């Protein structure tokens, strides 16, 4: 058992990725299927974000800017479909995304300032309160 | 005094069914000795079909596939958890969420599920499945791997 654990840790070190969970790239879209940057910008503005910079990272588009509430955000977007892969808030202080599966306490969505989805479960207009 | 009490009882009885009371969902994690757990709390109807999400603990969408029952039901659509996403929950710690839920969810065959996943550990879909009934409120339900117990209180 111990041997197995050591081997796993070793492999994880080599791969520099959370073996069981992390992929090498967050997006995997052929270059010919990428949407233009203007489309990304339009999508961001449609969400109410202000865009400072659009770059590519881990095979995705990454938007740096601010959300509608003025919080700094880093959003990974699928380059083909422009679906949101991941939203990080700048007050989240870890930059690598390999070992923070369970350490992203500061990456919490702002409960209480955002309305829950309209899925029929919640009272319309109510706001969740979270303590942890 | 008596009339006042009677009036109070009457108004309470009249207003109670129309109101949705705040429901507190308390999840205590066991000391499983790993990183923080991702938890998806969601509701299925009497037929077992996915109805909607109540909370997602864990901010990275690329890990959501490990919450496999939730992921199968939603296709991993983050719109399902927009505004109800928070941080993952550390081993041995507590997640306590208070939500204003529709009264229609109780005593109507709905079940609350919790999928759990921890990095490098085995996925645990539907680790907790508990029928939503008024009688079942405030009674802790034990989990299997990562969740020590779960309680919903009204």
Provide a concise account of the structure shown.
The complex is a heterodimer of chains A (132) and B (154). Chain A is an alpha+beta fold and 132 residues long. Chain A is built from 2 helices and 5 strands; from the N terminus they run H-H-E-E-E-E-E.
Task: Describe the secondary-structure layout.
The complex is a heterodimer of chains A (132) and B (154).
Chain A: H1 2-15, H2 37-46, E1 50-57, E2 60-66, E3 72-77, E4 84-89, E5 129-131
Antiparallel strand pairs in A: 1-2, 2-3, 3-4
Chain B: H1 2-15, E1 22-29, E2 37-44, E3 50-57, H2 68-74, E4 85-86, E5 94-100, E6 111-118, E7 124-131, E8 141-142, E9 147-153
Parallel strand pairs in B: 3-4
Antiparallel strand pairs in B: 1-5, 1-9, 2-3, 2-6, 6-7, 8-9
Organism (chain A): Roseovarius marisflavi
Biased composition (Acidic residues) (chain A): 87-100
Keywords (chain A): Signal
Q: Provide mean pLDDT of chain A, rounded.
A: 74
Strand order of the largest sheet of chain B: 4-3-2-6-7
Strand order across the largest sheet of chain A: 1-2-3-4
CATH topology of chain B: Immunoglobulin-like
Q: Give me the strand/helix succession of chain B.
A: HEEEHEEEEEE
Regions of chain B with pLDDT < 50 over 5+ consecutive residues? 10-18
3D shape of chain B:
globular
Low-confidence stretches of chain A: 12-23, 93-100, 102-113
The name of the CATH architecture of the domain at 25-95 in chain A is Roll
**CATH topology-level name of the domain at 25-95 in chain A:** Nuclear Transport Factor 2, Chain: A
Rounded to the nearest angstrom, the radius of gyration of chain B is 17 Å
The Rg value of chain A, from CA coordinates, equals 18 Å
- Sheet/helix structural class of chain A: alpha+beta
Strand content of chain B: 35-45%
Shape assignment of chain A: globular
| Count of separate DSSP helical elements of chain B | 2
Name the helicity range of chain B: 10-25%
Signal peptide (chain A): 1-22
Biased composition (Acidic residues) (chain A): 87-100
InterPro entries (chain A): PepSY
Organism (chain A): Roseovarius marisflavi
């Amino acid at each position: 058992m111990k041997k197995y654990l050591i081997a796993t840790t070793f492999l994880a070190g080599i791969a520099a990725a959370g073996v069981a969970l992390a992929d090498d790239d967050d997006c995997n879209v052929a270059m010919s299927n990428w949407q233009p940057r203007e489309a990304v910008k339009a999508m961001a503005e449609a969400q109410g974000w202000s865009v400072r910079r659009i770059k590519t990272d881990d095979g995705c588009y990454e938007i740096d800017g601010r959300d509608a509430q003025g919080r700094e955000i880093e959003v990974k977007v699928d380059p083909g479909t422009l679906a949101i892969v991941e939203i990080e808030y700048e007050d989240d202080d870890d930059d690598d995304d390999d070992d923070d599966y369970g350490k992203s306490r500061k990456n919490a969505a702002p409960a209480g300032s955002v309305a829950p989805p309209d899925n029929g479960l919640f009272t319309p207009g109510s706001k969740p309160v979270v303590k942890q | 005094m008596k009339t006042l009490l009677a009036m109070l009882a009457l108004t309470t009885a009249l207003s109670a069914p129309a109101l949705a009371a705040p429901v507190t969902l308390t999840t205590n994690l066991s000391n499983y000795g790993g990183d923080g757990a991702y938890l998806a709390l969601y509701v299925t109807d009497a037929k077992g079909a996915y109805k909607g999400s109540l909370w997602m603990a864990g901010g990275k969408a690329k890990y959501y596939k490990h919450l496999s029952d939730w992921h199968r039901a939603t296709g991993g659509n983050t719109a399902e958890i927009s505004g109800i996403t928070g941080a993952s929950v550390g081993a041995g710690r507590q997640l306590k969420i208070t939500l204003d839920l529709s009264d229609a969810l109780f005593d109507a065959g709905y079940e609350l599920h919790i999928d759990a996943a921890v990095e490098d550990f085995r996925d645990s879909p539907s680790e907790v499945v508990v029928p939503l009934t008024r009688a079942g409120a405030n009674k802790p339900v034990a989990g299997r791997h990562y969740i020590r117990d779960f309680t919903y209180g009204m």
